[in-house]
Amino acid sequence: MNPFKFILSTVIVLLGFCSCEKESGKQESTALKSEMPEIKRLFGSQTKTLSNGLQIVVVEEHSVPRVSMSVLYKVGAADDPAHIMGVSHMLEHLFFYGSSKYPDFTRAVGKLGGVAEAYTDYDCTVFNIDCPVEKLGVAFAMEADRMANFCLKDDQVFEREKKVIHEERLTRVENSMHGLLHEFIQNAISPQHPYGKLVIGQPHTLLAISKDDVMAHYKKWYKPHNAVLIVVGDVKAEGVFGEAERAFGGIPSEDASASSLERVRVKNSMTENVHQKIQCTWANIESARVVLCYNTPHFKKDGKRKCFALLLGLRALLEPSCDFYTYFEDKKFISNLTFFCGFAAFDPELLRIQVDLPKTITPKVFLKEFFAKIEQILKNGVKPEDFAREKKLYLINVAYKETDGHRKICDCFTCLARGDTVEGVEASCEDLLSVTEEQANAALKEFLGKKPRALVKMSPESER
């Protein structure tokens, strides 16, 4: 239920770099395709859509005699009405207590020998169950019950969870310097768009949410045709389809012909012809932080291959064993550097490069060196050996993600709430393999070659 889970799971921490000869990079690039299988379908998933619009995705993975399932609702914090921002996250909490048949959903799943959890991000809300495979039919029945029959009869439960979320906000944001900085940055780079607000909402919007607001949100979005059932484990797809039909098939949808409800979003002005510089001081921080935000391609508009070209270029520029980071680390110009590339969100987001500086370095000094080094990289390109290595590492991470467990595979399909397709997920490795070093360098030049859309400088004291 952690509202920051989606952020933590997408941040890439960058550590260090080294250099090699260009010819060895060519050999490693050639070796990549011979060492890695040409994967046409990443997981070999099978899919079916029930007459009420519920999409079912099944991945047969028989290494462990258990099963993981997710019910993915195509609604998230960015769909919340502005005056009750946080209602999606609050509904996620209350969904564990809102069924007459299972008033304590977590305990009921525990009796199956399973574990239930959930999270909300900007574009989706996901409910997970891990359980013994022989209990899958019961787990389906339980999920179907709260999809069809959610209610809020207990005022005490509502007020308790509302208080829990409000205190969670106070703990993670108001009383946390990292939380305050994160909220400030989010709002700075997406001031009009709901991506600029935190998933958990704001104190005044949380206090304004009523039971009627929660129920209205549930009745609008929690429909079979706005949901995806994802099942990964020691199962047969046909058997899962049959069990799902029995459990979920009778739940009506108001418009079963619709693949999802219309999601009305304002445009993020920062992804268009707007540039801003923000400089501020913060008494409670000990050292400076710089955030540079650039446009990125978006998978729905530009296609995944262009998005992967930029991602692989960024990894070759900023990931371990590439000399960009070492250059700044050796000069003691940085203490930490992370980046987030938001091309897979429902709406376009900005590429965000965040740098924490040592106490001895000011943003002005760092940025002068940063832009000079970027200009050099864009002129000469990333090192071929760095590109080949990072492409291989990332491909292995994606292609063999199932070794991390059934739950990770379920997570791969949550992008269906952002406009992706099952075939798009299955083709990910093929898209990655197709990216060339030249395409990665071209993507870096196209997007990092322009001045940032937003440049945020935060210092413990004013620059002199």
Description:
- The chain is an alpha+beta fold and 464 residues long.
- It has two domains: 11-40 and 267-459, Cytochrome Bc1 Complex, Chain A, domain 1 (2-Layer Sandwich), CATH 3.30.830.10; 46-248, 2-Layer Sandwich (Cytochrome Bc1 Complex, Chain A, domain 1), CATH 3.30.830.
- 43% of the residues lie in helices and 15% in strands.
- It is built from 19 helices and twelve strands.
- Strands 1-10-11-9-12-8 form a six-stranded mixed sheet, covered by helices on one side. A six-stranded mixed sheet has the order 2-3-7-4-6-5, sandwiched between helices.
- β5 and β6 form a beta hairpin.
- α12 (304-318) crosses α15.
- The chain is globular.
- Residues 1-39 have low confidence and may be disordered.
Shape call:
globular
Task: Indicate how many domains the architecture comprises.
Answer: 2
Average pLDDT, all residues: 85
Alpha plus pi helix count:
19
CATH level-1 class of the largest domain? Alpha Beta
Distance between the ends: 43 Å
Strand content: 15-25%
Poorly predicted tracts of residues:
1-39
CATH-level-4 superfamily name of the largest domain: Metalloenzyme, LuxS/M16 peptidase-like
Q: CATH topology of the largest domain, what is it called?
A: Cytochrome Bc1 Complex, Chain A, domain 1
Radius of gyration: 23 Å
CATH architecture of the largest domain: 2-Layer Sandwich
Largest sheet: 6 strands, mixed
The tally of strands reads 12
Computed structural class: alpha+beta
Q: Report helical residue fraction.
A: 40-55%
Physical arrangement of strands within the biggest beta sheet: 1-10-11-9-12-8
